[in-house]
Amino acid sequence: MNVAILGGTGAFGRALAARLRDLGFDIAVGSRDHQRGWERGAELGVRGGSNEEIVEGADLVVLAVKSNAAIDTARELKRAIGTTPVLCVASDVLFTDSGILPARDERSLAEELAEAIEAPVASGLQSVSAIDLASKELLDQDALICGDDPRAKEPALELAGKLIGGRALDAGPLANSRALEAMTAVILTVNKRYRAHAGLRLTGIPDK
Predict the structure, then answer these.
(1) Strands 2-6 and 60-63: what pairing?
(2) Per-residue pLDDT tens for 7-54?
(3) pTM over 0.90
């Protein structure tokens, strides 16, 4: 699978690129600046360039930019992305004096993204951190993926299943991204309080 990681110069994007590279995926990392993307790609041993350049020919685009830049980035690249499936891994959270909180009360970031571009959108991997991906061990957790269009959901599930020791699980329609994104605030809070790197693992699901 040819995977283009928008925001591939950030911590999560770099860790994801390195893990997928080691798993044999064809990876390209991008940045708004061609030179920065190229340099980061060279460091990681993958292709690199501007965000617009790397989405050409991709089978799946991973939107790994910061949440406050995700929609604007997608709009800028709407024509370049076209109908290439997109996986949104971002969560909109607030860091406040009282704790880490979900930043959205209604629609999720992924739902807004789906309205901003023509491509089918899936959402997931919010519970997987850059630190998790940088580990040499398979993650003892499940990955939840939601989406309305199988063109995005199926490759997202395939990719997620390679990253974890648990299962990649179909979590239903894209509207369920509201819960997945909000859960990020819960996981960050737990990890901060207990100085841990916890993820999600669902019980009671029979093996196929």
Answers:
(1) parallel
(2) 888 899 999 999 999 999 999 999 999 999 999 999 999 999 999 999
(3) yes
Residue 147: CATH number of its domain: 3.40.50.720
125-146 in b/e form (b: 16+ CB < 10 A) is bbbbbeebbeeeeebebbbbbb
Partnered with residue 115 across adjacent β-strands are none
Is residue 77 helix, strand or coil? coil
Residue ranges making up the domain that contains 137: 2-194
- Tokens representing residue 97 in the block: 């004096």
Q: Is 200 inside any structural domain?
A: no
CB 115 within 8 A of CB 121: no
How many domains does one find in the chain? 1
* Tokens found for residue 33: 């600046």
CA distances 27 to 165, 172, 173, 194, Å, are 21, 27, 27, 34
